[in-house]
Amino acid sequence: MTTESRQTPPRVPAQASAQQLADQSGQQLAQQSGQASAQAQAPVRKPAWPADHAPDHAPDHAPGHGPAAALSGGVAGPDALAPLVSTVLDALVKGAKTRGGPVAPGSPEEAAVAVAEAFHGVGATGAGGHTSQTSQTGHTSPAGQTSQTGHTSPAAHTSPAALDRLTELLAHGSADPADASCAAHLHCPPLAVAVAADLAVSALNPSQDSWDQAPAATVLETLLLQELAELVGYDRERAAGVLTSGGTESNLMGLMLARDRVLGAATGRQIELTGLRPALGARPRILASAVAHFSVQRAAALLGLGEDAVLCVPVDEQLRMDTDALAALLDGCAERGELPIAIVATAGTTDTGSVDPLRACAALAAEHGAWLHVDAAYGGGALLSDRLAPLLDGLELADSLSLDWHKLGWQPAAAGVFLVAESETYASLARRAVYLNPADDEEAGYPSLLGLSLRTTRRADAFKIAVTLRTLGREGLGRLVDACHELALSGARTARNHPCLELYAEPVLTAFVFRYLPVDADEKHGDDEQRSDDINAALRRRLLREGRAVVGRTELPGEGPGRVRLKLTLLNPHTTAEEVERLLLEVVAAGRAEEEAAALR
Q1: What pLDDT sits at residue 519?
Q2: Lowest-pLDDT range, 9-18, 234-243, 374-383?
Q3: Residue 569 carries which DSSP code?
Q4: Average pLDDT over residues 11-36
Q5: For residue 75, what are the CA distances in angstroms to 72, 79, 460, 567?
Q6: Distance between terminal CA atoms of the chain?
Q7: Which DSSP helix (H) or strand (E) runs through 404?
Q8: Is the predicted pLDDT of residue 558 greater than 70, yes or no?
Q9: Residue 446 contacts by C-beta under 8 Å, 6 or more apart in sequence?
Q10: Element (H, E) at 113
Q11: H helices of 26-74, where?
Q12: Cβ neighbours for 129, distance < 8 A, ≥ 6 positions apart
């Protein structure tokens, strides 16, 4: 007999039960105040990865006994954590100093060797139960002796020393988004208060799949999601949602509910039970812009629809969905007897931050009976800014949406949010597992979030967001969003005015796309677009290899050469306009160096 089954009828509004529990408890989040401080940049660049070193002190306890095996919870947990946290903080400082910039200089191979030697050279035992002293190159490196790669490997020692060494290595070998010259991706420098809050979650280790594993965190997630639903423009009492690992998971959930809801209504079947084969008549279609996130195609594949079920809608010069083209494609679906189950609009494309016309997309979705999912993983941060929030006009019309607080929310990953306007549309996800959310528990007032997520074990990622909101508030976070937007506008002006740079479009949010223009000193090259592509791609790798900058690379839609572009994604509100200008000058210098190198080949 199985212990897990579908819940019939589906009980979705678990959040209402959690709200009742919150009302009974009468507890509120404490108001906090504070502001994350900018990290100073070390001016000196180091030419190589740091060598391994022997532990500062001999182990006091055998592995598996004493402080190294202490637990983080309970009354004694904080005492055990305190010296370890101190070790981590000291190691973070050491690693950042030896890195000396946005990323450690060197090649991927050099980084891999250094990490492998450190990993094999520290710690009491490996996963196989034996002390590992052999580097990846196959050479044994005893304590205090240097391997052929030039790195010293220590003897086995206890976890505090391993914690110190490996944390320093991680800090040294990380791309640091708190550095002004690290601006390639939607990879934010997290707020110190959010990281501190995340430490509490890690120490207590609540899991959101049952109330008895996370009593307070269950209520807190419910309350937070109601606030976020209100921020979006949903009715907080009718909406539902869950914390996710990010936009990819959120987009999958939105398209799964679209499949089950729209295809189910068209066929009279429960698609989540019967699957696609007995239900298929008209071919299901998903429509998304040509620059929508690749996770849309991945979701279509995972949902059994196939990646080619996704119709790519052309975009305008600002890379926004062309709604006339969308209307034509929807009409074409009707003529061919195909069923448009979902339109995916993007509020903040990865490269340019472009926002699709949300109201027009919503009107077309309603006209054709399609589900509207809005991927606002990046652009959702505009809701925090009075200046930028109007860009998302119409977001409240979406059936479902994605938000990522680990982008324009300054949270440590993961901090994704998935929301639906109507909790009843969550029905196909409802799940009963008698060891997690038995019916009699729920009838007795114990709420469950199990039927709101694709995952079972799930950490309390809502906590750090809740602490951040109560610390800074929407206004404080909005100032950070506005600061990053100003940086993008300033950087775009610099790129537009520099003779060696070409700006693609004005920033919408906090990113802009541009390219280096090679100097046409040789008639042989002329306006060779392939040469431009090659130099722009190479200069980015040069900056990485030299540890000078982490700059993004992308390609414009279309075919043929001439589409490679560079990208700055500015998510550090403490960066200055002067630092962005210096970063662009580094790009120009790297471009000229690549031209000179190419001329010698």
Answers
A1: 87
A2: 9-18
A3: E
A4: 38
A5: 9, 8, 20, 48
A6: 71
A7: strand 400-404
A8: yes
A9: 17, 211, 212
A10: helix 108-121
A11: none
A12: none
At 542, is the pLDDT very low, low, confident or very high (cuts 50, 70, 90)? very high
Six-digit token string for 283: 């071919």
DSSP 263: I
Beta carbons within 10 angstroms of residue 312's beta carbon: 17
Distance of alpha carbon 208 from its chain centroid, rounded?
Answer: 20
- Tell me 260's DSSP state: I
Write out pLDDT tens, residues 463-480: 999 999 999 999 999 999
Q: Which residues contact 68 (CB under 8 A, 6 or more apart)?
A: 61, 124, 158, 159, 160
pLDDT for residue 397 is more than 60: yes
Ramachandran sector of residue 353 (left: φ over 0; alpha: ψ -120 to 50; beta: rest)? left
Q: How does strand 371-376 pair with strand 400-404?
A: parallel
Q: Which of 173, 585, 233, 200 is nearest to 383 (CA)?
A: 233
Contact 503, 430 (CB under 8 A): no
Q: Is 144 left (phi over 0), alpha (psi -120 to 50) or beta?
A: left
List phi, psi (to 5°) of 368: -105, 10
CA 211 – CA 224 distance, rounded (Å): 16
Peptide bond before residue 40 is cis, with ω within 30 degrees of 0? no
CA distance 67 to 71: 9
Q: Quick one: pLDDT at residue 41? A: 39
Q: Give the global pTM.
A: 0.85
Q: Which two tokens stand for residue 448?
A: 């469950």
Contact in structure between 237 and 478 (CB atoms under 8 Å): no
Tens of pLDDT, residue by residue over 145-172, are: 333 433 333 334 445 899 999 999 999 9
The predicted structure's pLDDT at residue 146: 39
In terms of C-beta density within 10 A (0-12 exposed, 13-18 middle, 19 or more buried), how is residue 348 classed? buried
Tell me, what amino acid is at 222?
T
DSSP of 486-548: HHHHHHHHHHHH-TTEEE-S--SSSEEEEEE-----STTTTT-HHHHHHHHHHHHHHHHHTTS
Q: Residue 37: how many CB atoms within 10 A of its CB?
A: 8
Overall average pLDDT of the 135-139 stretch: 37
- 118-151 burial, b if ≥16 CB within 10 A, otherwise e? bbbbbbbeeeeeeebbbbeeeeebebeeebebeb
pLDDT in tens, 24-74: 433 333 333 333 333 333 344 554 566 655 444 444 444 555 677 899 999
Compute the distance between CA of residue 95 and CA of residue 172 in angstroms, rounded to an integer. 4
Tens-place pLDDT, residues 494-523: 999 999 999 999 999 999 999 999 986 454
> CB-hemisphere CA count at 13 Å for 121?
32
Query: Looking at residue 31, what is its pLDDT?
Result: 37
Integer Cα distance of 349 and 341 in angstroms: 22
Residue 565: strand, helix, or coil: strand
Q: CA angle, corner 283, sides to 281 and 288, nearest 5?
A: 155
Q: Which helix (H) or strand (E) holds 146?
A: strand 145-146
